[in-house]
TrEMBL record:
<keyword id="KW-0249">Electron transport</keyword>
<dbReference type="InterPro" id="IPR011070">
    <property type="entry name" value="Globular_prot_asu/bsu"/>
</dbReference>
<keyword id="KW-0411">Iron-sulfur</keyword>
<keyword id="KW-0479">Metal-binding</keyword>
<dbReference type="InterPro" id="IPR037008">
    <property type="entry name" value="bc1_Rieske_TM_sf"/>
</dbReference>
<dbReference type="Pfam" id="PF00355">
    <property type="entry name" value="Rieske"/>
</dbReference>
<keyword id="KW-0001">2Fe-2S</keyword>
<comment type="similarity">
    <text>Belongs to the Rieske iron-sulfur protein family.</text>
</comment>
<dbReference type="InterPro" id="IPR015248">
    <property type="entry name" value="UQCRFS1_N"/>
</dbReference>
<dbReference type="InterPro" id="IPR017941">
    <property type="entry name" value="Rieske_2Fe-2S"/>
</dbReference>
<dbReference type="InterPro" id="IPR005805">
    <property type="entry name" value="Rieske_Fe-S_prot_C"/>
</dbReference>
<dbReference type="GO" id="GO:0005743">
    <property type="term" value="C:mitochondrial inner membrane"/>
</dbReference>
<dbReference type="GO" id="GO:0046872">
    <property type="term" value="F:metal ion binding"/>
</dbReference>
<dbReference type="InterPro" id="IPR004192">
    <property type="entry name" value="Rieske_TM"/>
</dbReference>
<dbReference type="GO" id="GO:0008121">
    <property type="term" value="F:quinol-cytochrome-c reductase activity"/>
</dbReference>
<protein>
    <recommendedName>
        <fullName>Cytochrome b-c1 complex subunit Rieske, mitochondrial</fullName>
        <ecNumber>7.1.1.8</ecNumber>
    </recommendedName>
</protein>
<dbReference type="GO" id="GO:0051537">
    <property type="term" value="F:2 iron, 2 sulfur cluster binding"/>
</dbReference>
Length: 245
């Protein structure tokens, strides 16, 4: 005789238990069934001894749990009323037709991917949109990019710093092309957090996660960060535009 015990929990009102005897040398196989409820949802005369014989026998309401030889331990309904979303608006026109080979559109799709990849490696920023003394954040190569329009006071302050006192010694002039503009990656060199602009003890950038303070040149001045903020490659095609990357 085979038996099964399980804790149904919140599903108990929706479950029916069935049990079957296994044929032995002294006793013929006699199926038995125990159901909770008045209505019998399964045919007790049908021998549910394999997975295939369960077809067409599952109840119309609530899941059924059964024990049998080579049979599944539970029955799950097929939700035929679930609508499959239509993603046609998000697909390329070349791959909408299911009967068309994807190899026919492979070349055009590769060219498109190369163009998108190439375009994402550079970013063009209009400098007139950034007021003096303010910092704007852009997304470049998946990272925050800080573009800071420094005041004359900030320029003079950073130029006068004694680099012998710095953890990662760098002159301000070596970190900028135009003294009015500081362009750095907004990634703390400690653990990769994003610092806050125009904050900290030195008025530059401050990482509140672990207390790293950077000056208005992006140089580490206090806290656990070991290095200055990274300066990406950039150039000024004209006085009002900077191209990063």
């Amino acid at each position: 005789m085979m038996s099964l015990a399980a804790r149904s929990g919140p599903f108990s009102p929706y479950m029916q238990a069935t049990a079957f005897a296994v044929a032995g040398p002294l006793k013929a196989l006699v199926p038995g069934i125990v159901l909770k409820g008045e209505k019998i949802l399964l045919n007790p005369k049908e021998k549910l001894l394999c997975r295939e014989t369960l077809n067409g026998q599952s109840p119309k309401t609530g899941p059924a749990v059964m024990v049998s030889i080579n049979g599944c331990a539970g029955v799950r309904f097929a939700h035929t009323d679930v609508r499959i979303p239509d993603f046609s608006d998000y697909r390329r026109a070349e791959v909408i037709d299911p009967n068309r080979s994807s190899q026919e559109s492979g070349e055009s799709r590769r060219v498109f991917s190369y163009l998108v990849t190439g375009a994402s490696t550079v970013i063009e920023i209009k400098l007139s949109d950034i007021p003096e003394g303010k910092n704007m954040t852009f997304k470049w190569r998946g990272k925050p990019l800080f573009v800071r329009h420094r005041t004359e006071k900030e320029v003079a302050t950073e130029a006068a710093v004694n680099i012998a006192e710095l953890r990662d010694p760098q002159y301000d002039k070596d970190r900028v092309i135009n003294p009015s503009w500081v362009i750095v990656l907004g990634v703390c060199t400690h653990l990769g957090c994003v610092p806050i602009a125009n904050a900290g003890d030195y008025g530059g950038y401050y990482c509140p996660c672990h207390g790293s303070h950077y000056d208005a040149s992006g140089r580490i001045r206090k806290g656990p960060a070991p290095l200055n903020l990274e300066v990406p490659y950039y150039e000024f095609p004209d006085d009002d535009t900077v191209v990063v990357g």
